[in-house]
Design brief:
The complex is a heterodimer of chains A (129) and B (181). By secondary structure, chain A is of the alpha/beta class. Chain A contains 5 helices and 5 strands; from the N terminus they run βαβαβαβαβα. Chain A has one domain: 3-Layer(aba) Sandwich (Rossmann fold). In chain A, strand 1 (3-8), helix 1 and strand 2 (29-35) form a beta-alpha-beta unit. The radius of gyration of chain A is 13 Å and the shape is globular. Chain B has 3 helices and 7 strands. In chain B, strands 1, 2, 3, 4, 5, 6 and 7 form a 7-stranded antiparallel β-sheet that branches. In chain B, helix 1 crosses helix 3 and helix 2 (65-76) crosses helix 3. Chain B starts with a helix and ends in a 25-residue tail after the last strand. The chains are: A alpha/beta (129), B alpha+beta (181).
């Protein structure tokens, strides 16, 4: 089974790079959906099956931490691993993301290997048997 | 080490790392200087990110339209012959990464800082100015025939002095500053 992934970032450039990097990992990845902020991402989750989310923190409208909080308070979405990908490397933001239930954290700039390493242990358990 | 030297080190390290990781390119340090708020009229692409907290200011990246297209082409592995939405977005994101990493590296010394969403401008005969009239640390990098300019202006926010996490020795940019580095 292939994993359905949601990429959330206000930068179209980063979404495009993540699309490419995810395909390069060689992992079983199906559709890669995109959202430009937390509000758009919640709309995607309401209408699509998603196995894993990669999200920026610093975004307009609804930022990544607010989005993460909404995902983790919803019984239907709480099991979806959410990985934060951001320049916000400060301890405060990281601690807040961990407290809210983030599954991992990758700091920009990132390499394909870093993304692959971070997703390796998350995608398999996220897929149904 | 003073705050100016710390900022120069952080800019240099962050810019080289972002270009190496995201674009697979090695930049060369061309010059380091400080500038006042009075700047020449210029053409090209300028991207800004605001910083706020114990210290406040602005980080910016300036380059020619040709270099902006080259950044986009290299970063997204796409063709970019003129400055369009994709080029501006790529420059904005590069700015976000460079200044964002500078911010993270400065925080252990200057206290917690917030980062705004980038704003990018492309035009001719424009002049940018900092309303605070603060001094800019300017670091230029050579990439082929082009120059990439990374600038940062930061001043202590007096209202935040004494708050938890704010370095009590935070002073003006060029003054000696006790750092545990």
């Amino acid at each position: 089974m292939e994993a359905e992934i949601l990429v959330v970032d206000d930068s179209a450039a980063i979404r495009k790079i993540l699309q490419r990097v995810l395909r390069q990992t060689g992992m079983a990845i199906g559709t890669i959906m995109e959202a430009g902020d937390g509000e758009e991402a919640l709309a995607v989750l309401k209408t699509h099956k998603v196995h894993l989310v990669l999200t920026d923190i610093n975004m307009p409208k609804m930022d990544g931490l607010q989005f993460l909080g909404r995902v983790k308070e919803n019984a239907d979405w709480v099991a979806i691993p959410v990985v934060m990908i951001t320049t916000e490397g400060g301890e405060t933001k990281v601690a807040e993301a961990v407290r809210l239930g983030a599954a991992g954290y990758v700091r920009k700039p990132f390499t394909a290997d870093q993304i692959k390493e971070k997703l390796a242990g998350l995608l398999e358990p996220a897929l149904p048997l | 080490m003073n705050v100016k030297d710390l900022i120069i080190n952080c800019i240099q390290q962050s810019t080289l790392q972002v270009f190496s990781t995201m674009l697979g390119e090695e930049l060369l340090l061309a010059s380091v200087s400080t500038e006042g708020d009075t700047q020449d009229v210029r053409d090209g692409v300028v991207s800004f990110v605001g910083l706020a907290g114990s210290w406040a200011g602005t980080g910016s990246i300036t380059c020619s339209p040709v270099l902006a297209c080259k950044i986009c082409a290299q970063m997204l592995m796409t063709e970019a012959s003129s400055v369009n939405e994709e080029v501006l977005d790529a420059v904005a994101e590069i700015t976000n990464m460079i200044i964002g990493n500078v911010k993270t590296d400065l925080e252990p010394h200057l206290g917690i800082l917030g980062l705004s969403v980038p704003t990018v401008v492309y035009g001719h005969n424009f002049k940018a100015r900092n309303a605070g009239h603060a001094e800019w640390v300017v670091v230029r990098f050579a990439w082929g025939d082009g120059l990439l300019t990374v600038k940062l202006s930061l001043t202590p926010d007096g209202a935040k002095a004494g708050e938890k996490g704010v370095h009590s020795a935070a002073t003006l940019l060029g003054q000696p500053y006790a750092l545990d580095v």
